[in-house]
Design brief:
mainly alpha; 3 domains; two-stranded antiparallel sheet; Four Helix Bundle (Hemerythrin (Met), subunit A); 60% helix; three-stranded antiparallel beta sheet; 13 helices; 317 residues; Arc Repressor Mutant, subunit A; single chain
Amino acid sequence: MPTATLPPRQSHLDLADRLVDEIRQAGTRVGDHLPEQWVASRCAVSRTLARAALGVLEGEGAVAFRPGRGYVLCADPVALRETRSQSAAQSVAGGDLRTRILRDRVARRLSEQVTIPELVRRYGEARSPVAKTLARLAEDRLVERGAGQRWHFRPMLDGPSALADSYRYRLLAEPAGLLEPGFVPDRPRLADLRARMDQLVAADDAGFDTALFDELDRAFHEALAEGCANRFLRSDLLDHLKMRRAPSFQSPAPVNRLRESTREHLRVMEQVERGRMEAAADLMRVHLQLSRPSWPTLSVRGAPPLVAPAGTPPGGR
């Protein structure tokens, strides 16, 4: 299997980090087989994304593809985790350019249109990393190439109005995706999600992992979007999910809301697995209505927008 020559997407790099953790926790040893389906189940992603994460590790020499067998582990998982953690720490110390650009846009410190020279001056980076960052943002449908040297930011969750529009869109689109003829559920993926969500719900408030909630929430909505047989609706839903992964105007939800949101996810999946798509769509609609944040009506003129770190869940997803 040829190794990709293009730089990996940031989402694939993040998924590779998660995969290293799963490999270490599973007790996988050098020389062990890493089936794509196992990776997909452990990380609660599609096989396409599993293959992308394996490709990242292959490029780093951590795994190798063997014809007729698939991927095998070539590096000690503990040492691999330490190496990647050091690399991530160095990246954070230097400031992740993608995150800095997105946070500045959400906080409206950047205009809707920018150029590479403007970003080079603002962030003190060379032209090449700025251009590569914009290219990756374009892959994730967060920016678009405009006329001349200009780049245009696509709509983002940069305030209460945008967040409200997002929830209204999802109320229309996500239930509709479940009702499209030919919906194909990824049953192994849903089963894995159910098992992990059951564990999350069982945790007490002190042990409730909000980062895990965020990961499972994204995987839940992504799995159902990918099951939609309407190619245009599926594409729009997945693009919207990419936009929601970016830094945004959000407020953390209390643990009891996140726990109930997880239970709502479980009810939706139960109906999907039974083929009761009308019931699943109704439950999805209720879930989104309950998750929609209620913003205060007091004036906040002059106050800077709240920018939460990427991955901070709003009113329950």
